[in-house]
Amino acid sequence: MTADIPLIQHFMTFAPETIQADLTLAQARERMFGLTARHLPVVENGELVGILSDRDISLAEALSGDLERLLVRQAMTARPFTCGPGAHLHAVASEMAEHKYGTAIVVDREHPGHVVGLFTTTDALRALARLCGHA
Question: Using CA atoms, how far apart are residues 112 and 95, in angstroms rounded to an integer?
């Protein structure tokens, strides 16, 4: 690996907040609002099981109208896009763009269920600005 290839670990959000799969979507929405977050990795027993986005919550609300009775696990995306901290920025960004992923969950290479970071489209734009010399 060449030293001049930008890696995800240099642009990701470290140690992001996570949410438990058994919480209600009302609790998740409140948590996202408080954190000003649009994505939360979903964990069960400390292991990654999915990703919940604000769009997932909005869709569930439009379909059911009752976020107090629906659980995070019912609205989350199981098997989210993940990568390791040493992944190349261009490869992750290309994958995200191709599949229209809003985030990549960065996991520990030795323990792929352990979340170590998040790389969102906002992080990608910050990386672009920095690499272009404007941040």
Answer: 19
Strand partners, 88: 7
Contact criterion met (CB below 8 Å) for 107 and 84: yes
Categorize the per-residue pLDDT at 1 as very low, low, confident or very high, splitting at 50, 70 and 90: very low
- How crowded is the C-beta side of 66, counted as CA atoms within 13 Å? 3
List, as one string, the DSSP characters of 59-86.
HHHHHHS-TTT-BHHHHSEES--EE-TT
Mean residue pLDDT of the chain comes to: 92
